[in-house]
Each structure stands twice: as structure tokens, then as C-alpha cells.
Amino acid sequence: TNQRTMQSLRRSIISHSAAFAPVVSVNPLYAPAGAGWGMVVQRRHKSTDVLADELVSACDELLAAGKRINWVFLGAPGVGKGTYASRISKLMKIPHISAGDLVRDEIKRGTELGAQMSAITSTGQLLPDAMILDILKGRVEKGIEEGERGFLLDGFPRTVAQAEELNKFTEVQQVMNLGLREDILVEKCCARRVCKECGKNFNIADIYHPGDPPIVMPPLNPPAGCEDKMEQRKDDTEEVVKARLQVYKDNSVPVEEFYRAAGMLTDFEIKSGIPETMPRILKVILDIVRSTPK
Question: pTM (2 decimals)?
């Protein structure tokens, strides 16, 4: 059973890796030819598997010692917080809590609060603290009642005031600050799509930016069953995305410094697609978990 569980987790972590294998972290024009290139891909995936196993064990030890794992992923809209948080939370055996998903669920349910939220987010502005804190506190308290051993929170806090309020009802232990070039962020945000039937998220951007090394992010295309059911969020237009990024930048530096001063913040720059980034971020997180006092 444990073996099947780990195989499932690995597939989640390196999903779409087969489609990405021909490009990996460089343009195909620079890829070595022949079987040697396949061996490079194999070694990369083996590294991810080993790190995943080690992170599972390290988190199990921490949880067995009675510790909670309360982490936050910071980063601009579109950086991939949700993508990485959803995969890594499975290995850490804690729930992934997305402030954005909580908000979108409230809007989708058509509540009065959801209507207010929709009117604000459609202009690219941040929601008032009280709105998000109310639904987030409820979710965290529900998790404690149900025996959850921590959480991986993404999309919150976005201001120092929110960080301070968060500390009043839960203890944050570590913060990962994900970074990505702004022009790529805009491109990625405008290419986000969601299946209106199954609710899964995809991204049709096919990104290649020359450099040393080049930045290559293949699309996360939908399967055949979802292709004709794709929707774009109303706030994922270039104008709104840029406004949202500016608002984020105006508020993010103080939040980063708030957590940096507390010795909790780790900066992590994303320079490639998921299969290439996962081993790097897993190694950083593993080192932090192992250094946490038992």
C-alpha cells in the first residue's frame, strides 16, 4: 500500500514530464542527441523520486514528534504557488489551503460575500483583510478539529497587517517566497485556463526566453475531454494582470521583510518548468524540514 501511495505521489509531482522530456530545461536546438539525452531525463526523475522519499520520511519524523507543519508559499499571481503547493503538500501529508480557491469557491456559490468579492477582484484590487481572514480562519479551525497536522497556505498573507492577524489564530513556521520574471508572469497569467466541467487548471502558454540558461516552460495543456470546455478567468486580461502585479509589488516587500526578520523566509527563484524545478525546490524544503528542532 505504501509503495502504491508513493508511486501515486511521484506521478503527481512529475505530471506531464513525458511531454516535457524533449525540451527539459533547454531549447531542443541545444539538446544533446541520441540516447544520452534520455539518460539525463532519467537521472533527473530519479533525483526527484529520491528527494520525494526523503521529504516524506523527514516530515513523518517531525509529525511523530508532535510538531505541526504550518507553511506559507508567497509569490506574485501566476508564479505557480498553487501548482507547487498542491504537489508538495501531498508529500508533507498536510492539506494545501489556497486563499484564492477559498475566495473563488465563495464567489461560485453565489453568496452575498461572494458577490462583493467578485466586484473587487474583477478590477485587479486586493480584497479587504476581514473578508479573507474570515473564511481562512474558519478553514484552519475546521482542519484542527478534524485532526489535520498542519497546512500549506498559498496566496495569503499579502500585507503585513494580514500576517499579523494570521498569527493571532495560527502559528506560521516557514515561508517560501517564489519568484519569476514579471514579463513571464504576465504571459502565464493571461494563458491560464480552467475546465468548466471538472474544475482543473491548465496553462496554454508555451514559453521560451533565450538566456544562459534559457527559460523554458512548456504548456500544461488539457486532455482531450477538457479541450472544448476551457474558460478564462475574467480577471486574467493583460490590463488586469498588470494592475494586480503592481498592487502585489506595493505590498509584498514589507511582508517578505516581516517574515525575513522572524527568520522564517526562504527565497526561491523559478527558472524553468515543473519537472526541472521540482528537484530544486524539494531539496530546499527537505533541508529546512531536517533542520527543524524535534
Answer: 0.74
